[in-house]
Amino acid sequence: MADKEDLEALHQFNGTTKYYEYIGMNVTDGIIYLVENGYSWFVSDAIFTIYFDIRIKKHLKKDKFLVIRLKVNRKNKTAIVMFEDGNNNVLVSHVYNHTDAKVEELVLYYVDGVLMLNSEY
Which CATH number fits the domain 10-120, given the four candidates 3.10.450, 1.20.58, 2.60.40, 3.40.1130? Predict the structure, then answer.
């Protein structure tokens, strides 16, 4: 859930008006909002992992759905990004030893080649 100080308008994204191309991937209005508001590192990491991680590529051959979950420990300024299969099974995770992210959690979905906020699904 987003902190009020950060990503204030995140709640407004329910569906999308059009797709945008970002680093070669179709993304939604909400993803563009994240990129423009300090979370381009998170979005870029998600996209490059989807493109290049062999475990993700193997999963996507069977299932066209991923959950990408950012969890931030604001107290010690660390974060973890987990790529899940939709049934809470972690396929890949990345640990960040430092982040200034102010949210506690963000959840993205990757569905049929489109990266979106979970509220846009």
Answer: 3.10.450
The model's pLDDT over 30-67, given as tens digits with 9 standing for 90+, comes to 999 999 999 999 999 999 999 999 999 999 999 999 99
- Sheet order of strands, 114-117 included: 20-22, 25-27, 114-117, 105-111, 65-73, 78-84, 90-96
- Model confidence pTM above 0.85: yes
61: exposed, middle or buried (C-beta count within 10 Å: 0-12, 13-18, 19+)?
exposed
Q: Over the stretch 62-108, which tens digit does the pLDDT of each residue have?
A: 999 999 999 999 999 999 999 999 999 999 999 999 999 989 999 99
